[in-house]
């Protein structure tokens, strides 16, 4: 039987208990003492069609060919062949650019012993690409980690039996571990650790250092859109330097025009359209349409656009991003009605919404095998657990976000089946209460993907009335949303800021309030809106004197001073510098003061007030002699040399250049020194030419030195 969804949502507690409680415990207890627990991998390698509403567009379906950048494959070869016991590699890129598909092809190559894709250049396509395997391990164990299905205790006892590649897709989904997670574990493990990628990596690093991996190599491939979260570089926080395959994350290379057009051709062939009746015969014409739909020209939108062009909806002369997503969602809604039937469609839509909000971790329910939902292909049964139904979230993520946000409408769906705004808010609140990290991650992704259309903020985010226990993560999510909306939607960013100030009293969430204030000040200063930024800065004084708040105030001060100097409002900038940066004399706060001071120096120099600029420049020596400070002084010296030289004061520029010799011999300082010498060479030569034209004796040339 199906379940009835009532206003009380009483079934949700039972669902969570079955999904995260006794069942999970039973599965972990089934592991005998003779068996070593293994990380659970998602089954993405079955050649059969994957479950889900839009499985044809999901990377695991491998609906279209894959053309990989050769440099990316060479990096991967170096990654898995390296001798270290444990190594981590982070690949980043916007939604829909192919991160997960690339990782899937990596896994298939290691698991089968050969690569099943083509390269971007013709020369590479003729090469036979086969990973070199050790004799003791002919193939690797490789796949996407099922984080929810792998108890944290697994990592404590795990000893790999072969070389292993584990893919952590959407790595920061559980990076926030300070909020309430789903409870119900009976094995005594910390639920926060269970879903925290950072804790898992730390534990594996300790085991690798102790030699617990034996002769085998373990590789962790992390996939995420960004390597920063809450203004922190989470990658460097989580992964120690010795474990990083690359010091900085690898941005996924864009797919070539030929590869994108090849994707479209594969889609059209699936519709039975060959070269003679394909909607677009030339790659240039298709790419022109794709650029109007997606500026990133990602493979996902190439698939969506090609599908739209192959149907009646694709006959529009100029399809937009909104059009393509709406057409795709409409097909999905019709599929729900067709597969689930009108009787179960209402239930299916709401379960899909919960599953989408929580990344597939919620929405399971007991159903008979002959139920329409069971046979609809909208989910799958848990292996070994009869009667437990796991609906697949609406994926890819962009389509799932559109489904929840509602800005694509639910055209063609009967009135009783549609999810209205009020009911969607209720579903969102219930998802927050049970699985807040997933919901927070979902809304952060919405902010990245739909920052140009912020109407959903008030409807689905700001109007969520949450329990107190969920508020901390909600506030952290709001901080990130301000960052995304600040790129062009200042009104939406300001609404989030005002809403955060209305939550609790002024003494609550001071760190989050300070962070969002700093973000908004940076945004306003970048837009030259100092009258809006200054009052926000003043309100930060009421947030206390904790280190976190002081750091935010220092950063905000730097943004204000820099912005005011660029706007040539030097008096206001000087007042801000002298009044707002009076923190204790530690290097942590000396650095932002020095940055603000350099902005003042540059401002006075650009204004031609060299006396004031030179006096402030001399005061930089009072800020200590640390490596960071010497680097800042070197950069300030280069700026002064340029300003003096442009004004024709080559003698003063040369004096500052000579003074750079005392700043040490670090590589970064030498780089600035070389830069200064080149500027002097250029301006000296320019001055000689001008002097000759005017019949004057040229000044002595300054010899460049490195």
In brief:
With 706 residues, the protein is mostly helical.
Low-confidence stretches: 1-33, 122-128, 176-193, 363-370, 383-387, 698-706
Largest sheet: 5 strands, parallel
| DSSP summary: helix tally | 27
Radius of gyration: 29 Å
Question: Oligomeric state of the chains?
Answer: single chain
Strand % is: 5-15%
Number of strands: 10
Q: How helical, in percent, are the residues?
A: 40-55%
* Overall pLDDT level: 79
| Mass-distribution shape | globular
- Side-by-side strand order of the widest sheet: 4-5-6-2-7
**CA distance, first residue to last residue:** 80 Å
Structural classification: mainly alpha
Description of the molecule:
- The longest helix has 37 residues, at 321-357.
- The model is unreliable at 1-33, 122-128, 176-193, 363-370, 383-387 and 698-706 (pLDDT under 50).
- The protein has a five-stranded parallel beta sheet with strand order 4-5-6-2-7, sandwiched between helices. A three-stranded antiparallel beta sheet has the order 8-10-9.
- The protein is 52% helix and 6% strand.
- The protein is mostly helical.
- It is globular.
- α13 (321-357) packs across α14 (397-405), α17 (471-485) runs parallel beside α19 and α19 (510-526) packs antiparallel against α20 (530-539).
- The termini are far apart.
